[in-house]
Structures are given as C-alpha cells and as structure tokens.
Amino acid sequence: MKHRTAPDGHQKRSLKDRTYFKPDTLYLGDCRDILPTLPDECVNLIVTSPPYADRREDSYGGIHPDKYVEWFLPISAQLKRVLKPEGSFILNIKERVVNSERHTYVMELVIAMRTQGWLWTEEYCWHKKNCYPGKWPNRFRDAWEHCYHFTKQKHFQMFQEEVMVPIGKWSEKRLAKLTKNDVVRDESRSQSGFGKRVANWIGREKVYPTNVLHLATEVTNKNHSAAFPVELPSWFIRLFTKAGDIVLDPFIGSGTTAVAAKQLGRRFIGVELKPEYFELAEAAMTELELPLFDHAAHNREAA
Asked: pTM of this prediction?
C-alpha cells in the first residue's frame, strides 16, 4: 500500500478546509504549511524533537541558534491552536555549544512560549544511559536532554498510575522499622510546604516515578541522525493520553512517535519535511501493518 499522504499545495488551503481531518496520517511536507490545515483543538498530546539549531546548511534544519526562537514561535502558535484544552505538549530539545559556551536559545524559547500563552508546567530530564564516551577540552559528554512539558491550562489530562515503577529493594529495610515521624506527615524542615508519610508505602509494590527518565539512546536506526528511542514518546503517551486519543509529532522523522502511539492503541498525526526520513516512517508503519490513510487518493476522489 502506498502511504504517501501529503497533498500538493498545503499553503493554498483556506481555513474552511480544516473541517476535513483524518487521524493515522503521515504528511510529507513542512509543518508550517500543514499545521494550519488541521482543525482547532483536535489532538490530545504533542510529542516532538525539532531540528537541532545548526549553522550548517546541509544538516537537518540548518536553523542558526540566533534565529531559532523566531523560527519556532509560529510553529508553537499552531501547536497551541490544535491542542485540546486539557492536552499536553512535550518538547525534547538541547542547547548546542556556540563559541565555546552554551547558547541561550532554549531558555529564550521557553520564556517566549510563556509569553505566547503556554504554561511551562514541568521539565523532565531524559538521561541517555548508554552515551558513547568522549573527551572535550572544557566539558564532558552530553548524557541528558530536556523534555519540557507545556500545557494550555493548569488542569490537564494526566494518568500517573500508568507510569508507576517497582518500589525497589530499599523498602524492605526502610519500611521494616518505622520511626515516630514515619507514621505521621513529616513536614519539610525547609518550610517549603512539602512533607511525607513513609508509612503510606507499606505493602505497596509500585511507586510514582521521578521526573528523570533513564532510557538508552536509539542504536538500531542507522539512517536518521537524531532518532530518540520509542520508549521516550511511549512514556509520555501513557502518562498524558488514553486509548483512542490522538498524538501529533510535527517533526516525525523516522516515525518513532507514530510507532509508539499505535503500539499503545492511540492514533497519530505525523509530519516530516525530508523525503528520506518520511520513507523511514512509512516503512515503520508498514512493518506494523497499519492501513494508513492515503490523503492524495482522497483529494483525487474529491476532485
């Protein structure tokens, strides 16, 4: 089955064309052209890793760090429009080094998106636990990346029980001998308002995770320069969506987010600019034996 789904002339569509919407679709094209064709508030979760800031024109994206915020804000405005009020946006991004120091474009982008109306709800850390060793004169190997969590409102859809983890062997000794402070709420000495009651965890096999995700980098995809592991979008999909919800990745690359969504019983919308990466995404969907919607065929029938 042919899975190429991007019609010609996205930029010529009018707003009334937003009435047509089909999940489980891959689009070949620029998300700046395709996102405006999607209806308002049509997706439950956005998970994406946009192109790295890079001055080299032959690299993926080629956006200079000084221009990155200016380039991304029109995209984030469209993402905010298509996201449902209770939805979440996960942005996986990392600062690059320019002239021997970390550039500030990521911090500037977070501040600019808050001005745009996004709530910076949380920051998750992806610890890349299998980083290849190396040596640099003034820093060490990058072993983590940001996963910024943005929402449109304070109350959003979240299923914390879906990402619980085993309590661990520490509980065997720690919970065997409780002190008097363990059976009551022990307030933080820093007067932060936080506290804990250790006795709450007696008899439990699972606990809530931290905001640090210990995941290996993707090592099987040799044809994409920056593919993240399927476990990364899967974790956020389980946390912020339920079965049947729609997940959007405007920089779908080799299709990892779409694969994660379908494996978990969710639907997806994916957009990819580079034909060679789009073909990888198509192949990934074919491997899952998914009946992808043929957008080009629909346009021919409508004509």
From this structure: 0.83
